[in-house]
Design goal:
single chain; alpha/beta; Rossmann fold; seven-stranded parallel β-sheet; six-stranded parallel β-sheet; transferase; Teichoic_Acid_Biosynth; CDP-glycerol glycerophosphotransferase family protein; cell membrane
Length: about 1050
């Protein structure tokens, strides 16, 4: 519980200032009040206690207890930090000097402004609610109202305790005041004080060396005039090299005293004869103490680093004016008396409220004044780029690539090398200019490091020897590219709009080289209501968020008087660290950067369109969970499929096809992509999905004889690895099959056949007339069902094409033969492929998207991930002819993701404003396969593709695309005959393998088991060939 009868006093690490003199009054004249001096300085605590007063360390247990129960905290400045223990205490601010300088809220120059701004940003509400402030005259009341931001309820009118106390109660001594005796000077020696104000910078390396360039001459004049000169440095300038050097060299000089700031110089003001002053408030304190002689040493009045003047210094000061060191030396030999009426004028200006009731008024006010709860607004600031607006290509270089593309298309307007190197040259020109600014010593204090777009293109013109017209054209293209590339970022746009609608104070801050008019246009493009929101732009102000100075510029411009400042942005340094250093509450948004995959895509395409697609993938990555099959479907699978389907649609429209038939199982997802694109583009095309397969059509297509391919290495029996499998495909029992193919009896039905044995049995089957007749009979039966189904599902009297993805083209030939056998197809049958092995012929037209020999196996695995297997044939059901399919296990989550994400990607892709859509689609398609080929062990592939099960060969067994090795699979890996059946991607399998198989794999890599096994096989074969077996 706080008590207003417990007061704590502080003046930094010293026992001085106005708080000290009020402390002395309270201790001696208000015994009802508990008065304790508090500080962070142990020496000061010991010193105050040695004087017989109570003192505590702020960080001590007793100090913290005092802070928690005290009702009044007496200070002489607007405190930067208010400990949590002092929450709810009344701040009695007696200040430390009247004056003519710009201070506190109005300080706009120098290194102190950041510290001062921070304390108001952090504590403004506390100051308004709890601080009472002593003002000494109407002029100073107006001054501090403006400089500190006070209202009438916070004011106390009176004199400064450090001036009033001696007048009412006599001098107080905490140290030996007899300076003349201590320096061995006569009792009539003149005491002069030089106490220069704080400067943020000064001429040369030392302020005091600039002030006293010839200290020996100064000392001669002091001796000649019997003067003791006290040099009192501002605490922040106590380490000035010139002061330290003078003290080391002339520390024993009788006519010089280097003041120890631990001693309160106000205690000896009654002994001062001459004040040597500059712009410090000590000038007016000396006047109030009765000093009548002054020299105004204003040699650096107009220099940078001398704090700003809030009033006219010369008219509000008095004494002999010395503008040079020579003037000072001359003035020391003069009288320097200020006329009584001039002293009275200044006293009235600065001390009109000074009276003998000051102490009583201060105490009564502190005991009775209530704390407040002032309603203050919140200041909301937002970064612009990548916060409320973003580029479609995400990164700035995407804009430069767009300009490069325009240069390439501007035939003859620029030399070829300009386009070739433009992106690099544009970046290096900007970087070089920024480095020049950062290293410019003249900008060290102002921190005006920002550059403009015009600066960049002037630099480019110099480097590339551009004409003025070429330079201006490129600059206009960059502005146009930015205008075209940017789009609103919905979340923060909505946030800004909601704050504005609620009447909140909102501003924009941006580190950006673009002209302000362009940035404003970009903001209005994002939301019309942003047209009048204040915009603080580095290219206009010259200063940046990253240095903190743009925040300071906004702080001063808005006249910061808010409860809190909340800033939102995406840059960890400029929007969080630099803002946080000023006490601004920050919200850091995720950085809008391309990840490795997106960067690889943009680099591979090397165009502005490539960056726009990378931006699409980036946006989806941020909007959705990074885990699960959804991002895999949208970001990875779509690139294998959508470019191909869009080409199919373009080509089909150009060829006049009316209907596209998408063939199962490849066509399931391809059709959904096509339907989304047809709707988005408004195409006059129909699509249908038909069930068909090698299994369903190959035998049915054998009309008069079984063709040679039927028994070939890619034919109907290619996937059969056992006699049982061969018999099943042939439609015979094992006994029937063995009777027709006697060679099969040499093998157990379910034992895996070697590749040579498989080939031998297929050759025997091809030569069997009995099997041939059996298969032709089955073919006729299957063909009747097939034709019935196709007649039900397809319209043959219109122009159409069938869409597959990949194959040799043999399945197409099978369909052509089936349709031709019943006169349903009388011309070349058109099929679309991403790539087919066979080319077009007179019976089959094969439209290929690419001729590149990409491995299509990963896409086949994705197509196979349906909840049913390949079509086995057809049967007549209650609703007509239907395919015969068997249910199978699949990755249902991936399937659902593909169902939703592939059409969604298609729609969003088509909405991109691509400049070269056809080229971009082909580039994306190639990138998808190249990325998988070069980075198959990327996590999304390992997680979602590797476990998918499929049987690529007709009649083959389903197996994972890239399984982790088990011990048995490891030995299959060692075996030449079985190695190919283990996996379709060894890098993926190696990456998935763990445990003992992983150790075996590493041992194989180290010791080469496979190589040694092959050597053993070769030696065994050599012995067998040279020593054939003999039979008895």
């Amino acid at each position: 519980m706080r008590s207003r009868l417990t007061w704590i006093f502080n003046c930094a690490d010293t026992f001085s200032g106005n708080p000290k003199w009020l402390f002395l009054y309270v201790v001696h004249h208000r015994p009802d009040i508990e008065a304790v001096w508090v500080t962070d300085s142990k020496p000061t605590v010991h010193f105050v206690r040695s004087l017989g007063f109570r003192a505590e360390l702020l960080t001590s247990r007793r100090g913290k207890n005092l802070q928690q129960r005290a009702g009044v905290f007496v200070v002489n400045q607007v405190k930067e930090r208010i400990p949590p223990e002092m929450s709810g205490i009344l701040l009695l601010n007696l200040w430390h000097g009247v004056g003519v300088k710009a201070i506190e809220r109005k300080l706009t120059q120098g290194r102190l402004q950041a510290r001062i701004a921070r304390k108001y940003i952090e504590n403004n509400k506390v100051y308004h609610d709890t601080m009472s402030f002593l003002v000494t005259s109407p002029a100073m009341e107006a001054h501090f109202r403006e400089q500190v931001g006070l209202d009438d309820e916070q004011l106390i009118r009176g004199g400064y305790p450090q001036n009033v106390y001696a007048r009412l109660y006599g001098r107080y001594s905490s140290f030996d005041h007899d300076l003349r005796a201590r320096h061995g000077l006569s009792s009539d020696a003149r005491i002069a004080v030089y106490a220069p104000t704080y400067r943020t910078e000064h001429r040369g390396e030392s302020f005091l060396r600039a002030a006293f360039p010839d200290p020996e001459r100064l000392i001669r004049v002091l001796r000649e005039t019997n003067t003791l000169l006290i040099l009192k440095m501002h605490p922040s300038m106590a380490k000035d090299p010139g002061f330290v050097h003078l003290r080391e060299r002339f520390g024993d000089e009788p006519n010089l005293r280097f003041w120890d700031n631990r001693d309160d110089i106000y205690e000896i003001f009654g002994d001062v004869d001459l004040g040597i002053v500059d712009y410090s408030s000590i000038h007016y304190d000396l006047l109030a103490a009765g000093v009548g002689k002054f020299i105004r040493y204003a040699f650096d009045l107009d220099d940078a680093g001398v704090q700003e003047h809030s009033h006219d210094y010369l008219s509000l000061s008095a004494g002999t004016l010395a503008s040079t060191f020579e003037d000072l030396l001359a003035a020391l030999g003069g009288d320097n008396t200020v006329a009584a009426d001039e002293r009275a004028r200044l006293a009235d200006h600065f001390w009109a409220y000074d009276d003998d009731d000051t102490f009583t008024r201060l105490v009564d006010t502190a005991l009775t004044r209530s704390l407040r709860d002032v309603d203050l607004p919140t200041l909301y600031s937002f970064d612009v780029f990548d916060t409320v607006i973003g580029r479609r290509g995400i990164v700035p270089v995407s804009v430069f690539v767009d300009i490069r593309d325009r240069i390439l298309n501007a035939r003859g307007r620029f030399p070829p090398e300009i386009a070739r190197d433009f992106v690099r040259d544009r970046q290096t020109a900007e970087n070089a200019l920024r480095e020049m600014k950062r290293k410019d010593p003249e900008l060290r204090e102002s921190r005006a490091f920002e550059i403009t777009l015009a600066d960049i293109y002037r630099r480019l013109a110099e480097i590339l020897d551009l004409s003025a017209d070429q330079r201006d054209l490129l600059m206009s293209w960059e502005i146009e590219a930015e205008l075209a590339a940017t789009r609103p970022l919905p979340a923060e746009v909505a946030h800004v709009r909601a704050l504005r609608d609620a009447g909140e104070h909102v501003v924009f801050l941006s580190d950006m080289y673009l002209p302000e008019s362009v940035v404003r246009e970009l903001l209005v493009k994002a939301d019309q209501s942003f047209h009048d929101i204040p915009l603080y732009l580095s290219s206009s102000t010259g200063v940046q968020k990253s240095t903190g100075y743009l925040y300071l510029h906004a702080y001063h411009d808005v006249g910061y008087d808010h409860r809190v400042w909340r800033h939102t942005g995406d840059n960890s340094h400029a929007d969080r660290k630099a803002a946080g250093a000023l006490g601004i509450s920050t919200k850091l948004l995720p950085r809008r950067e391309l990840d490795t995959y997106e960067s690889a895509l943009a680099t591979a395409l090397g165009t502005g369109d490539g960056y726009r697609v990378a931006g699409l993938l980036h946006d989806r990555r941020l909007a959705a969970s990074a885990e699960g099959p959804t991002p895999f479907a949208f970001r990875y699978v779509s690139l294998f499929l959508v470019p191909y389907v869009l080409w199919v649609l373009d080509d089909a429209v150009a060829r006049g096809y009316r209907t596209l038939y998408f063939l199962s199982r490849d066509g399931h997802h391809l059709k959904r992509i096509a339907d989304a694109a047809i709707e988005e583009l408004g195409l006059d095309l129909r699509t249908r999905y038909i069930f068909g397969s090698r299994k369903a059509w190959r035998l049915a297509s054998q009309i008069d004889s079984i063709d040679e391919e039927f028994f070939g290495e890619f034919g109907t029996f290619a996937g059969a690895r056992t006699v049982s499998a061969l018999a099943e495909i042939a439609g015979l029992s094992i006994a029937e099959f063995s009777a027709v193919i006697p060679e099969a009896t040499a093998f157990a039905p379910d034992v895996r056949l070697s590749q040579a044995s498989q080939a031998a049995l297929r050759a025997a089957m091809s030569a069997s007339a009995v099997l041939d007749a059996h298969l032709l009979q089955r073919a006729a039966e299957e063909r009747r069902a097939c034709v019935a189904y196709l007649s039900q599902e397809m319209v043959f009297d219109e122009s159409f094409a069938v869409v597959e993805y990949w194959g040799r083209g043999y399945t197409q030939e099978c369909l052509k033969r089936i349709l031709s056998a019943v006169s349903l197809s009388t011309s070349a049958l058109p099929f679309y492929y991403a790539r087919s092995i066979y080319g077009s012929d007179e019976l089959c037209a094969r439209h290929n998207f690419t001729s590149s020999a990409f491995s299509m196996l990963p896409v086949e695995a994705i197509f196979a991930n349906l909840d049913h297997g390949t079509v086995q044939g057809y049967r007549h059901g209650s609703g007509g002819w239907e395919p015969i399919v068997e249910p199978r296990q699949n990755d249902a989550d991936l399937h659902d993701a593909l169902e939703s994400e592939l059409p969604e990607f298609t729609r969003e892709f088509l909405r991109l404003q691509l400049t070269q859509p056809a080229r971009t689609r082909r580039g994306l398609f190639a990138f998808a396969f190249d990325h998988f080929r070069t980075r198959p062990a990327t996590t999304p592939y390992l997680t979602h593709l590797a476990p998918l099960r499929d049987a690529v060969e007709l009649g083959g067994e389903e197996r994972e695309f890239a399984p982790a090795l088990s011990v048995s699979l490891f030995f299959n890996y060692l075996n030449r005959d079985t190695r190919g059946s283990v996996t379709r991607s060894w890098p993926m399998t190696f990456a998935r393998t763990t445990g003992l198989p992983r150790l075996l794999l590493e041992a194989q890599r180290r010791y080469g088991f496979r190589r040694k096994l092959r050597a053993i096989e070769r030696r065994a074969k050599h012995r067998s060939d040279n020593h054939p077996a003999t039979w008895s």
